[in-house]
User: Which sequence fits this backbone?
C-alpha cells in the first residue's frame, strides 16, 4: 500500500488496487482497517516504526564499541 500511495497519491489509489497488490480481497482490508484513511494511518505508523528501529540501531552502532571503551 505504501508504494501505491507514494506512486499514485492517496486520492488516486483505490482500495481495490491495494487489495490486488497485496493479494487479498477489498473486504479483508475493510475488515482490518475500516477505511482507506485508517489503512493510510496504519501504513504510515508501520513505516515510522521501522524507521525508528533503523535509527536506533544506527545510533547504537555509531559509538565506540564496549571493547574500545574498556581499553
Assistant:
Amino acid at each position: 500500500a505504501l508504494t501505491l500511495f507514494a506512486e499514485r497519491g492517496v486520492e488516486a489509489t483505490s482500495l481495490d488496487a491495494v487489495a490486488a497488490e497485496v493479494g487479498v480481497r477489498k473486504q479483508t482490508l475493510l475488515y482490518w482497517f475500516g477505511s482507506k484513511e485508517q489503512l493510510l494511518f496504519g501504513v504510515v505508523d508501520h513505516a515510522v516504526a521501522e524507521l525508528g528501529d533503523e535509527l536506533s540501531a544506527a545510533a547504537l552502532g555509531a559509538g565506540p564499541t564496549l571493547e574500545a571503551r574498556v581499553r
Q: What stands out?
A: DSSP finds five helices and no strands in the chain. The domain at 2-70 is CATH 1.10.10.60 (Arc Repressor Mutant, subunit A). Helices lie at 2-8, 15-22, 26-33, 36-62, 66-70.
